[in-house]
Design a protein that fits this description.
Helix 3 runs parallel beside helix 5, helix 16 runs antiparallel to helix 19 and helix 19 runs antiparallel to helix 20. With 836 residues, the chain is α/β, with parallel strands linked by helices.
Length: 836
């Protein structure tokens, strides 16, 4: 018994507090038999031939990683030692220093070769890069092998990046906030300047370099004109300096009006020679300070940004004038394809925002310079939970492109919901657009492989921040990891990626790994199930916070995210035959599949077609019943995530265990809010009842508005579906109470209090059963950074669950609320459920 306890204690010690800061680069100690094997295989010396800044990072990282994992501090040397060693260098340097090794190969830019060489009785583990970056990526790859328990004693492996552009975009504002960022303030900016302490930037560079990311834009695409002010260059240069040891090039987002707004010209017409000269000299000045500057990302004529349309010029004119000043230095211009009219007439059934990217760009094919790529969002709308691949990927043959994927979870639960996006991205990347003879999956098109374009690749909008865990949710780190892995090699499968990430991030306890992998791999479908199935897109507050439920927010406005649900049916008719014609933007083989309801996949049915609620899906269910079922299934799946996570108590380090548990419990509550809101809305709209009798019937639930209220007043909630019964209560007094009498059988129960956690204030709640307080808590969640929600709605609706409460018939249940600031201690309902 004691020995058992001791083993337990040792295991607990190993689970030291983890904040998530180290993400997948924890270098946790290798244990058991593997430790001896690796100590055997990894030599005592790490020698560096490439004495560059990046080279020194590779060497220092190797020391750091091996020390963490093997408990050995490798000796650092230069040159080719006469004892067993890891040798880091570019292939050229290695060939020069050790011609006898005969390392003959040609490595494309940024690739690497891991090779075990036996020579003169000495064994070398060679990490040869095509260049310094390739060598650094190779060093990280070697470390990853050890961390993943893979063999390293006899290596011969070449890896080359799938595409040249492997960039991150950050939407950081110069004032230090981040547009659509959920992991805290900017790591780059504070009060209009680069932060005094940029150590987070280097640490971010290290995380990115570990997976082969080679560029990062550091300011919002809704760009501050100050970014190109002449006196601002030193600020950018400081950030570039912090990234440089990791080979991450700095990229800047700019405003197209800059020649006028900061350049003092009377125009920003891209065809005006003075404007061209201004771009050239401005970019030359940047390169003077930052020789490895990566290039520019440009959002023009979109969502209120100025663009070439001011002068009736084309996007090609705009892109080229900016690109030409970058060209002499090898810089790239990524021109965003996210151009659409947000004042469209919703009454016109032929209008369709999904058409916009293709309509704006395909005619310009061939007019863009060689160092321009069109940066195209994965789908035709805007990072919705399910979209088809943008048809533009298949329409550009003479223009380079890059796919833009959103790591930050703007429409995906904003770090409060666990949603692993790799399976979604994979569906798009692997989707064949039939753009040429033979397979033309999106990944090959964007990488420039199909039409032999000089550049192309992957851009991920990450928006990490100052939070210790970077993204506001430990589980969300898998999306950053997964994006970068796919940018390097999009042929990896979702399970390969998640299993690597899980082992690196949480260690290799099989029970832990299985639970996390299972949860991550199903999480996108789960989220889709309760937010917007069948291609409806997210039924969220489109014009507001992009987080809570608001089924009609998409309708009757110019933003064009319409689902057109009414009392008869639902879905956007995008067919060529009767609809907007969007489907006709695809090549014939794809268009044919989407055009017919018979061959259109269920998952995209309502994206492509308008159908009656009684339409029968391929899966045999009617549309309306599927909407009901998927929402119940999704909400139940999150409950199961919570149960599964609880089984990991003691197996995951304490802090991350608690953080994730709290996140999942919150998500489970939210999933139920979504479930009830969407199903009730559709039940009302369609007039068709749920065949399972669930919608509108909530056993054990008592609405706040029907309780005995002291001080609380009843409020209508808008939209009505955001609260159970369309109503809630809120407290305008110093304190209020809502009371009910328990009428059911005696026993043990779970009590769920659905309350509202409004921003700017932290109300206090107390739950009494008879004379006893059974729980008390403070409503102090931070939900929407920079967008405080003071309303009683689905965003602020929050669940408190108290398990194991003994109840007897006649018990008085009383909730006391004490408002604070704007938080009115609102209450939606109390639900009493038998303990399962
Ligand atoms: O989805 C929208 C976001 C905006 C964003 C825009 C874009 C940076 O809501 O916040 O602006 O897309 O991608 O340009």
């Amino acid at each position: 018994m004691w020995s058992k306890l001791l083993v337990g204690a040792a295991a607990l010690v190993a689970l030291h507090a983890e904040t998530g800061y180290d993400a997948w680069l924890r270098y946790a100690p290798v244990e058991g038999a593997a430790l001896a094997q690796y100590r055997q295989a990894i030599p005592a010396v790490v020698s560096l031939l490439d004495d560059s800044e990046i080279g020194r990072s590779a060497q220092a990282e190797t020391v750091r990683g091996m020390r963490g994992m093997l408990g050995r501090t490798l000796r650092t040397e230069a040159g080719v030692p006469s004892e067993n060693a890891i040798v880091l260098g570019t292939l050229d340097e290695i060939r020069r220093a050790a011609p006898a090794w005969r390392l003959d190969a040609s490595l494309p830019a940024e690739s690497f070769w891991l090779k075990t060489v036996a020579s003169g009785g000495v064994r070398y583990t060679v990490v040869a890069g095509a260049d310094a970056r390739g060598m650094l990526y190779g060093a990280f790859a070697l470390l990853r092998k050890v961390a993943l328990g893979q063999p390293v004693a006899s290596l011969d492996e070449k890896q080359l990046p799938y595409a040249r552009i492997r960039w991150i975009n950050q939407w950081d504002r110069l004032n230090g906030t981040i547009e659509r960022g959920y992991g805290g303030a900017s790591i780059f900016w504070e009060d209009g300047k680069a932060r005094a302490d940029l150590s987070r930037v280097s640490d971010y560079g290290r995380l990115l370099a570990s997976l082969g990311i080679n560029g990062c834009s550091i300011n919002n695409v809704n760009a501050d004109i100050k970014a190109l002010a002449p006196d601002f260059v030193p600020q950018i240069a400081r950030i570039a300096e912090a990234f440089r040891p990791w080979g991450v090039r700095v990229v800047l987002a700019v405003d197209f009006g800059s020649p006028q707004s900061v350049g003092g010209l009377d125009t920003f017409d891209p065809l005006d020679a003075r404007v061209a000269a201004w771009w050239q000299s401005t970019e030359a000045a940047i390169y003077k300070a930052i020789p490895d500057f990566g290039g520019i990302v440009l959002k023009a004529d979109s969502e209120g940004r100025v663009g070439p349309s001011t002068y009736h010029r084309t996007h090609a004119d705009a892109a080229n004038v900016v690109a030409r000043g970058l060209k002499p230095y090898g810089g790239l211009l990524l021109y965003r394809g996210f151009v659409y009219d947000h004042h469209m007439d919703w009454r016109n059934l032929k209008n369709d925002r999904a058409r916009a990217a293709y309509d704006n760009f395909h005619d310009l094919d061939g007019q863009f310079d060689d160092n321009v790529a069109i940066q195209i969002k994965n789908g035709p709308i805007d990072f919705q939970v399910r979209e088809p691949a943008s048809p533009l990927f298949g329409a550009l043959e003479k223009t380079s492109q890059a796919i833009e994927l959103q790591v930050t979870q703007e429409y995906m639960g904003q770090a409060h919901h666990t949603v692993f996006l790799v399976p979604m991205w994979k569906e798009t990347l692997d989707f064949d657009l039939h753009a040429g003879p033979g397979p033309t999956p999106v990944k090959a098109l964007v990488a420039g492989r199909v039409f032999h374009r000089p550049i192309g690749g992957f851009v991920g909008v990450a928006n990490v921040g100052m939070d210790r865990d970077w993204l506001g949710n430990h589980m969300s780190q898998a999306n950053l990891y997964g994006f970068a892995r796919l940018a390097w090699n999009p042929d990896l499968t979702s399970s390969e990626i998640v299993s690597e990430w899980t082992r690196l991030t949480f260690g290799d306890n099989p029970a832990v790994d299985k639970t996390i992998e299972q949860m991550q791999l199903t999480s996108w479908r789960t989220y889709e199930d309760y937010t917007g199935p069948l291609g409806l897109q997210n039924l969220t507050d489109i014009t507001g916070n992009h987080y809570g439920v608001n089924v009609e927010a998409s309708e009757r406005n110019g933003w064009g995210q319409w689902h057109r649900a009414d009392e008869k049916g639902v879905g956007m008719d995008r067919t060529v035959a009767t609809g907007t014609g969007y489907i006709g933007q695809y090549r014939p083989a794809v268009a044919k599949m989407y055009e017919s309801e018979a061959t259109c996949p269920d998952d995209l049915l309502l994206f492509m077609h308008h159908v009656p609620y009684t339409h029968v899906l391929h899966n045999g269910k009617t549309v309306i019943q599927y909407i009901y079922d998927s929402h119940y299934r999704g909400a139940e799946a999150v409950e199961e995530y919570v149960r599964a996570w609880r089984r990991l108590a003691g197996l995951v380090d304490e802090q991350r265990y608690r953080d994730v548990l709290a996140q999942l419990e919150y998500q489970a509550g939210q999933a139920e809010v979504w479930r009830d809101a969407v199903t009730n809305w559709f039940a009302r709209a369609s007039g068709i009842a749920d065949a399972e009798g669930r919608v509108g019937h909530y056993p054990g639930r008592t609405e706040a508005e029907s309780m005995q209220l002291q001080g609380y007043t009843v409020r209508e909630v808008t939209p009505a579906e955001d609260a159970s019964g369309g109503k809630a209560v809120a407290c305008a007094a110093a304190s209020c109470a809502a009371e009910m009498k328990y009428q059911g059988a005696a026993g043990w129960y779970t009590v769920r209090v659905e309350y509202f956690d409004q921003a700017e204030g932290a109300a206090k709640f107390r739950l009494w059963v008879g004379k006893q307080v059974v729980d008390e808590w403070t409503a102090d969640l931070t939900l929407l950074p920079g967008r405080p929600d003071r309303r009683l709605d689905s965003t602020t609706s929050t669940r408190r669950q108290i398990t194991g409460v003994a109840l007897r018939p006649g018990d008085e249940i009383r909730l006391e609320g004490v408002p604070n600031g704007s938080d009115q201690a609102g209450l939606d309902y109390i639900e009493i459920l038998p303990v399962r």
